[in-house]
Every structure is written in C-alpha cells, then in structure tokens.
C-alpha cells in the first residue's frame, strides 16, 4: 500500500522547522538563521520512498502579535497552510513551560481537526531526565497522533519521525515524480540563499526587515550562471551597514552566497549585488506584492 500526502510544519519562530525539513529530505532547500521570520513563504519539499511520498510544507513562525503587513501575511500563510495538511507537525522546544504563544497554536490545531504529531525538537540541548517533564506539560493540551522527541541539528530520531508521518498519511498516488525534491525554482532559491547570508553575516546590526529581489538570472552556459540581485532595506543607515566600509560587508555576503549557489547549481556563479532603500516596505501592500508576498 503506497501512502502519500501533505505534512505541514508549524511552530513558533526559531524552533527549527526549516532545519528539520532539510534533514528529513536529505538536502538543504529552506534557508535557516537565528532571526525570527527567516522563512517567509510556504515552501514545498518532497520525500519519495518505496512506502510512500511525503510533501513537506514549511511555514513562517507563528507569532501572537504582528507589527506590520508582512507579519500579517506570514501569519496568514501559516494558518491557511494547516487547512491543506493531511498531518500537522507541531514543533516545540524541550521546555516544561507552555507559553501563551503555544496555547494559541493549540486552539488553531484543535479547530483544524487535523491529526497532529507533536515534535519536541532540540533534545540535544537538555538532559534526558528532563524529557518526562516536557512530555507531561504537553500531553494534556490535546490528543496527539504521536509525540516524538528529535534533534533536527544532529538527526536524532528523524527516521522515527519519518515513519510516524507515513503511518499518519492516507493511501494515495505520487503527487511528484521521484526526482523532484522541491517546488522552488533556482531563481527563488538564489534569492533565499542571498537573504540567508545577509541575515547571518549582518548579525544583530540590521533588523530582519530586508528582502532580496533577483533582477536577472541567466544560465549563460552549462558551466556559468550569471545572477544580479538587489538587497532591499528600510533605512539609509541600514544600507550603509549592509554595504560596509569600502564595500566589505556586501562583498562578504556575495562571496558566501556565491559559494553555496555554486554547490547547488554545479556551475560557476557570477553574482552582482546592489542595495536599495525602500522605506517601510513591510507595511506597503504594493511593495509586498512586488517582492513576492501576495497579501
């Protein structure tokens, strides 16, 4: 019996959804960083085995309060994606304290009526003797299809989670060919890789209010890809930080992005970056749409 369906990953920001999804499919597709709302769009990745096909849907981190239209969009993406799920993976950190944010997520999960697997991530950060208290804190919140502790970073219990997901899926067809691993185009992946490197290299100096526009993506030959992109920020002071002294920071972002894109594409990458200020773009419906966030 071949099983197939959609497994939606939800949880609060920085709980490790993208890292876990990358580990489950065996390669990096979703970008990661320590900053909230790193994931901004619904990302589909595909895992095909002899037993079935799992289509993973990674979503933005769920927050209780939104500060701008971008935040509203991200919450809308997360909530709407739950309705597409055959099974929901709710990721939490290994704490015996259940905050208001997680309680709000429980209400949405109960209302959806979808089967939910509670995934307790980052178990490498706590001692094993602490896990029973974590289980106890969450078990009474709702009826879970399963509760599985994992370490997305180290790969602990990832195979067990994969088996539990397949068990929860219905019998069905292959939605994608076996060689397909994501719905993201190389152009989209390039934009996300550049944004990831900017978030990581800039550290805490610039807020996560940056976007990346791919102005041009051309496969000039079998061995060369030329990419031109613009990093958009909200303030002139942020632009100066992104560029850095004598262009050093922008060069660092470009170098880091180019190295990873060469691994992904298998070609030499020519990458040209610009920086542009678009004030308050996160509150502009027009800008959000132009940047790929359909409000």
Low-confidence stretches: 35-39
Number of helices: 9
The residue-averaged pLDDT reads 85
Strand order of the largest sheet: 2-3-1-4-5-6
Helix share bin: 25-40%
What is the rounded distance between the termini?
A: 40 Å
Radius of gyration: 20 Å
Question: What best-fitting shape do the alpha-carbon axes yield?
Answer: globular
User: What is the H/E order?
Assistant: EHEEHEHEHEHHEEHHEH
Binned strand content: 15-25%
DSSP E strands, number: 9
Structural class: alpha/beta
Question: What composes the largest sheet?
Answer: 6 strands, mixed
List the helices and strands and how they pair.
Layout: E1 3-11, H1 17-25, E2 43-48, E3 52-58, H2 69-82, E4 87-92, H3 100-112, E5 116-120, H4 131-139, E6 146-149, H5 158-168, H6 186-202, E7 211-219, E8 224-233, H7 236-243, H8 248-265, E9 268-277, H9 285-290
Parallel strand pairs: 1-3, 1-4, 4-5, 5-6, 8-9
Antiparallel strand pairs: 2-3, 7-8
Helix pairs in contact: 6-8
């Amino acid at each position: 019996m071949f099983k197939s369906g959609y497994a939606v990953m939800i949880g609060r920001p920085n709980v490790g959804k993208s890292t876990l999804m990358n580990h489950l499919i065996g390669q990096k597709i979703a970008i990661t960083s320590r900053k909230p709302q790193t994931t901004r769009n619904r990302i589909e990745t595909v895992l095909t085995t002899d037993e079935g096909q799992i289509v993973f849907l990674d979503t933005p981190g769920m927050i209780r309060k939104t500060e701008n239209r971008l935040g509203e969009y991200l919450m809308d993406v997360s909530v709407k994606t739950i309705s597409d799920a055959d099974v929901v993976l709710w990721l939490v950190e290994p704490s015996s304290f259940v905050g208001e944010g997680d309680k709000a997520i429980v209400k949405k999960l109960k209302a959806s009526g979808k089967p939910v697997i509670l995934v307790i991530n980052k178990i490498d950060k706590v001692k094993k003797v602490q896990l029973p208290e974590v289980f106890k804190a969450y078990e009474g919140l709702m009826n879970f299809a399963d509760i599985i502790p994992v370490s997305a970073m180290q790969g602990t219990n990832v195979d067990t989670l994969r088996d539990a997901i397949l068990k929860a899926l219905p019998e069905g067809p292959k939605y994608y060919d076996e060689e397909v691993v994501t719905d993201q185009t190389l152009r989209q992946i390039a934009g996300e890789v550049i944004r990831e490197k900017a978030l990581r290299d800039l550290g805490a100096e610039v807020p996560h209010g940056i976007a990346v526009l791919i102005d041009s993506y051309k496969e000039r030959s079998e061995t060369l890809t030329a990419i031109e992109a613009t990093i958009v920020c909200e303030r002139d002071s942020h632009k100066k930080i992104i560029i850095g002294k004598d262009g050093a920071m922008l060069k660092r972002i470009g170098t880091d992005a180019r190295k990873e894109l060469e691994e992904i594409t298998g070609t030499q990458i020519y990458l040209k970056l610009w920086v542009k200020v678009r004030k308050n773009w996160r509150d502009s419906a027009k800008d959000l749409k132009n940047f790929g966030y359909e409000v």
